[in-house]
Design brief:
heterodimer, A: 247 residues, alpha+beta, 6-stranded antiparallel β-sheet, 23% strand, B: mainly alpha, 9 helices
Chain lengths: 247, 193
């Protein structure tokens, strides 16, 4: 089976079978190889996996037998002699998660004051967004945090540098007139902190971080009613875990 | 995506730091769903517990979870399903359960509970309704694959259908389910993205 011989509909079928773990080993191998280079399948597969997981929810509502308590499986996972780790709020080092370098081009992004108070906004061409991300990837001390929706979509990226967060929308629709997007820092103690509100979905917007990046577990974007910044998100659209700073 | 996704993200970051309380927190959230799924496929509590251990061990070791592939809850259920199916295949046909539509559709509706539980039960109810709306032949191939642990080729042999028909029915069923469940994965999926 090769990409040239295979109409993409057949790959779609394999993607569905792959998400259900219902392929034969040779088909699974062929699909795995194809997946590495096929943007269409990479976009398609998370949707199939989400649907499969929803099938799994049927079992959850049906089964009367409780799961074993954590104490029953802890040793198999953590190990009997491993001391309990307590992570201070001033976060420790991440064990994994180096930032992905996105593309080679670098350019200076000119920021102009506009839009919602507290944000600085750039003009929003796709190439400007790519350049902003590429620039961060090649700048020491800059972190790239990809935001992911639960359907696998990648609506935007947060760039963090010099104590500021830059929201780079990649695939977001303008909000309704009475709604606004809010960027959040999720602290390592689980508390959300609103960085700022924005309505622009073309240009990049930047604002100061509420707390240091090292104390941040993730960024998130929520949709909120227009008005004062909320203290808790009400409708979370996408989340992205923090990555290491570029060295 | 529920607002719990934010808490999941924080817990995941702490798991990356080796924080035992964080992996325990994720287990408290999703261990029950994973165990129920594994047990449904395997029909054996001990085998299901083994599968759940493997899944959370993989998460603890940082093996395999890719945020680009969706929420951690989706990944945990996918991993559980994958390992449970592997296990049922190793155990051989005698352990395979004909987890057909009857078993799925006869599941009792759940009563009220805490928000998280209520949401997961609502999602299960929506999923069950969406399954009911599928043509029987599409539902059959889907459930034989997902809950029976059969490959599509095995399903073709069992049902006497051409393999291509099994594959096309499966894809159509997955697409229809996704359309009907587009709002059931969580309140945050649609608007604005």
């Amino acid at each position: 089976m090769t990409d040239r011989q295979q109409p993409h509909d057949e790959w779609d079928q394999l993607a569905a079978g792959y998400a259900l773990h219902a392929l034969e080993p040779d088909e699974e191998l062929a699909f795995t190889r194809h997946l590495a280079d096929c943007a269409e399948c990479q976009e398609l597969l998370p949707g199939h996996e989400l649907t499969a997981a929803q099938l799994g929810s049927l079992a959850d509502s049906a089964d009367d037998e409780a799961a074993p308590p954590w104490s029953a499986i802890r040793t198999a996972i953590i190990g009997a002699d491993t001391p309990r780790v307590v992570v201070p709020l001033a976060a420790g080092r991440r064990r994994r998660g180096s930032p992905r370098l996105l593309s080679a081009a670098a350019a200076v992004v000119v920021l102009v004051a506009a839009g919602v108070i507290g944000w600085r906004v750039t003009s929003g061409s796709p190439s400007a967004s790519s350049q902003a991300i590429a620039r961060c990837a090649h700048t020491a001390g800059c972190a790239i945090v990809r935001l992911h929706a639960s359907n696998g979509a990648n609506p935007g990226v947060v760039l963090v540098s010099d104590g500021r967060a830059t929201m780079v929308p990649l695939a977001m629709r303008p909000p309704a007139a009475d709604r606004t997007y809010v960027l959040w820092q999720l602290l390592r103690n689980g508390k959300p902190a609103p960085v700022g509100a924005f309505r622009q979905t073309k240009g990049d917007v930047t604002a100061p971080l509420v707390t240091p990046y090292a104390d941040t577990a993730a960024f998130a974007v929520s949709l909120e009613p227009t008005g004062p910044l909320p203290t808790q998100p009400t409708q979370v659209l996408a989340v992205g875990n923090t990555t290491n700073l570029t060295r | 995506m529920s607002s719990g996704a934010l808490e999941d993200a924080a817990l995941l970051a702490r798991v990356g730091d080796g924080d035992e309380a964080a992996i325990e927190g994720l287990y408290q959230r999703y261990g029950g769903a994973c165990f129920a799924l594994a047990r449904r496929i395997l029909g054996d509590a001990q085998l299901a517990e083994d599968v759940v251990q493997q899944v959370f061990l993989a998460l603890w070791k940082g093996a395999g979870y890719d945020p680009a592939r969706g929420a951690v809850s989706t990944w945990l259920l996918s991993m559980t399903h994958h390992k449970a199916v592997d296990s049922v295949r190793r155990e051989g046909a005698r352990r395979r359960r004909m987890a057909g539509e009857q078993a799925m559709l006869e599941l009792e509706a759940a009563g009220p509970g805490p928000d998280e539980v209520a949401w997961s039960r609502l999602r299960a109810e929506l999923t069950r309704d969406a399954l009911r709306q599928l043509p029987a032949e599409q539902r059959e191939v889907l459930l034989l694959a997902y809950y029976g642990g059969y490959t599509q080729r095995e399903i073709a042999d069992m049902t006497g259908l051409p393999l291509g028909t099994v594959k096309s029915r499966t894809l159509t069923a997955m697409r229809r389910l996704r359309e009907r469940l587009s709002g059931a994965a969580g309140p945050g999926e649609g608007p604005g993205l």
